[in-house]
Every structure is written in structure tokens, then in C-alpha cells.
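G., the chain you wanted modeled:
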Amino acid sequence: MDRSSTIRSRSRAPVFVVGCARSGTTLLYDTLMSAGGFAIYLGESNIFNLLAPRFGDLSVRKNRERMLDVWLGSRLFRVSGLERSQVEKTIPEDCHNAGDFLRIVMDELAQQQNALRWAANAPEEILHLQRIKETIPEALIVHVIRDGRDVSLSLSEKRYIRPFPWRDRETPEGAALYWEWIVEKGRAAGALLGNDYMEVRFEELVGNPRAVLKQLGGFLDHDLNYDRVQETAIGTVARPNTSFTRDAKRDFSPVERWKKQLSAARLSKIEDLVGDTLSDLGYKLAAPAGNGNRFDRAWNRLIYRQFFELKYRSKTNPVVRALRPALTSAKVDQIVIVDDRAEPRKWKVAKNSGPIPEPLGRVSAGQAIVQHH
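Predicted structure as C-alpha cells:
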């Protein structure tokens, strides 16, 4: 691995798997790891969206040393399998932004595992695509999009979205508006990235994986052999990642779950709020269009979108950052999702595709990575 090279061949370029929470980003990320050639890191990166915004300008040595100290004390470091000395000697000198930090860590991990390249499971970093491309110019972006009605159910069930102060949890209607906001942000940013941006529909990944992997493999310039993916079966490839534990106990189908779990009244409200976006993405509406109150629809969309924008902007505001409690390793551990209980894996080299983990089987494929959603 040559850290001094800023632009690499497409077949070695880092890959960012992004999308709205509960859209299937972990399934796609685990699929990439199962295909071989990618460094295995069993967790979400959380650099651009969580750590970097809390420590300010990383070109300031004190800031990057503080961030490194928190990262080294957290599960994000422990799950990497790296030694402290492998990153401590490099980051204080060579790191000047979030992209440098992530590249240094993941390059070290890839080198240790003799991997061809690395990927980041980074759902919320869809809000930071411009910064990602500024600091890692060769990065390839894969945006996973899922039916917003299914996403809204999962987001509400997991209490992923911090609701208005007067609510215990966000409703599926509010979660649907969050899905729409995130998807629109990602697509708008992706439109500026040209051939370095690709969208994958979750329903197609589940229903026709061979075709999706063939197309995605061409985009990434990487062999994504479906049979090898199934044989290796890391994480959610082997075990479904569902918000509804009862679903895991019977035949699990993550597609169009909303048809059984949303009442007609709630479905009508959701489609009234985000139906245009669902239709634009090719999802067929179930409820007749235009039945809702136009004033209520416009008001709810305005309030929620302003609420989401305010929370997003506050994360990078230096005044707000100064007023917030310091981010500690313990706090990071409460937020992030990693599989730090997985046992170390043995490695072998697959012809023409780099190192892959020894196959673990469909049932014993380690701990499933459950997203923080």
C-alpha cells in the first residue's frame, strides 16, 4: 500500500457504502467483504459523521491528537485488530483532515490483511459526500436506496431518529420524511460525482443479487462472485439484520413488509407526504393520490425538513461544538455499531481476487452486524 499516492486505479479505490439508515447498507457492505479482496473491518467507520465534526480543524495537531486518543480508546479501534503503534506514529504527522485519518487507518488494516483495497460502511456519511471526495478524491460511492415505507417502519421501531422533545419516539410518518430528506441529499450530491457514484436498490439486491453484483462489480472494477459471497457469508449475508425480532424466527422477507405492517390510514399519510419521491424512484403507490390535506402536508414537510437541517448544521457549528460536552471514548462506544466480539479470522489468498476470509458457513458466519438504526 502506497500512502503517498493520492490517485489510485479504480480497482484499488476505496468504496463508501452509504444510504439512509435501515436501507441495507450493511448487507451490501458485508457482501463486498464476503466477495474477497476487501480489508475486513466489522463496523461502521463513523469518522466523517461522528468523530471529525467534534474535534474541529484536524490540520491543528492538538485537535487530531485528541481525536486519535478518543478513537484509540473506543471499540472503533479495538475491532480493527491493529496495534496502537501502527497508527500512533503516522496520524500525528500525516493526518490533516477526516479523509487522511480514515485512509491511514484503513490502509494499515488492508496492508496487515494483504487486502487489495478497503470499503467503509458509512450510512450517515451520505451527508458528507462532498467532503469525502475532497479528501479522498478517488473514492467510489455506492448509495443503497430502499422503499421508504419499509425504512419508515424500521426507523420508528428502532427509535433511530431523535424525535421532537414532546415525543417518546418518532412516528413512521416522521421517519418517512427523514428517509426522503436523506435520499434527496445523497442523490443531489451524487449527481455531481459523475462516474464515481452508483445507486443500488435494496429490493434488487435481495431479489436478483447476481445481476446487481455483476453491475456493481463493473462499477468498482472488482470481481464480485456471487457463489463466493454465499460460501464466505460474513455477517448479514448469512443472517438477516431485522429490526423486528419476531421476523427472524420465521421465513424472513425484508421486501414490502409495509403491506402487512402499516394500517391503511397510516400508509395513506406516508404516501401523501413522500409519495412523489417514492414514485420518482419507481416504487408503486398503494393509496390513491391527493387524498390528504394539502396544508397539513406542506406544514409537516416544512417543519420536519427544517428540524433535520438544523440538527445537521449544528453538528459542524463551532459555537455549538464548544457548548457540547466533550466526546469521550465511552460515549463513542454507546453510539457506534461494531462487532468487537468476533473471533480473529484466518486468511487465504484467492486467485485474481486477493485475500478472503476462510469460509465460515451459512450458519456460523460470526456475529451479525446490527446497525444502529
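Strands lie at 15-18, 119-121, 140-145, 197-201, 347-350, 354-357.

Shout if anything looks off.
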